[in-house]
């Protein structure tokens, strides 16, 4: 009898040890997943948290074992951002039965959160968190490429219809030019013809927007180009109660090797956007668009700042996407083409903005003799 009892006890011990080995094995797997894992039991007590999750919330996992959700939220070292997100997750999960959540953290990373509960979990709640930033980037790249393909088709369809009237207008302006010369207004004809040529160049850019265009470079002083751009926008700015202020490095020549027409197109497009942003503000005070230059080692920065309506971070993240626009009659092509133009010049274009506080665009171009 005693022998049978000992044998049964031995089998029970072996079974327990086997169960523990399996449990430890699975716990070890969960501990080393690249996703954050946290488990609450049916009483709402935190019973498991893996290494990755502890890293994500920047807290030692063992200090949270045995805590309920309220105690976790009251942890003195849990960030305010995470506290707000946990409350939001709790509300959306239990009020709207939402099991999948996506959010962007304060550093711009994308996260996917999955909450599993119900009969299959025996009352437990399993929460997993995964960094999907790379997947989002791939998705956005594919979306961007699809937009470029669509852009090429639309551009080809409209180019013929636009070019015909432009050709007619150009011909009539040339016929009128002798009369304008007699009136001492030849400068008007020159500007009109130059702008018609620029419009034709823009159409050409649209047709070639899905493939790189090699800029036809010449060496120019960036200050001269900016003065011409301001001259072209002064009348429109006056009608829209805007003042364009030009602050240049008069004591230094800032030569760049650029395609003048392309860079002028970029600058005029940003100035036009600034005027429209200023129009959105219901304010009797006039708008200000400040344009300045700033040498930066081997580069020069062109800074275009306005006191318009500004934009939030979500809008800024999509600003250079083809066809993305918030304007009723906009095409969403201007900044997309501008971005590609600057990149083809081995430069960079960035934007910083705050809703209601205005926007700053910075165009960076390499100077002559420096990294051309």
From TrEMBL:
Parts forming coiled coils: none
Superkingdom in the source lineage: Bacteria
Protein name: histidine kinase
EC number(s) on file: 2.7.13.3
Taxonomy of the source species: Bacteria, Bacillati, Bacillota, Bacilli, Bacillales
Source organism of the structure: Paenibacillus anaericanus
Residue ranges constituting the PAS domain according to the UniProt record: 22-93
UniProt xrefs under CDD domains: HisKA (cd00082), PAS (cd00130)
PANTHER family according to UniProt: C4-DICARBOXYLATE TRANSPORT SENSOR PROTEIN DCTB, SENSOR HISTIDINE KINASE
Gene3D superfamilies according to UniProt: 1.10.287.130, Histidine kinase-like ATPase, C-terminal domain (3.30.565.10), PAS domain (3.30.450.20)
Reactions mediated catalytically: ATP + protein L-histidine = ADP + protein N-phospho-L-histidine
Keywords of this entry: ATP-binding, Kinase, Nucleotide-binding, Phosphoprotein, Transferase, Two-component regulatory system
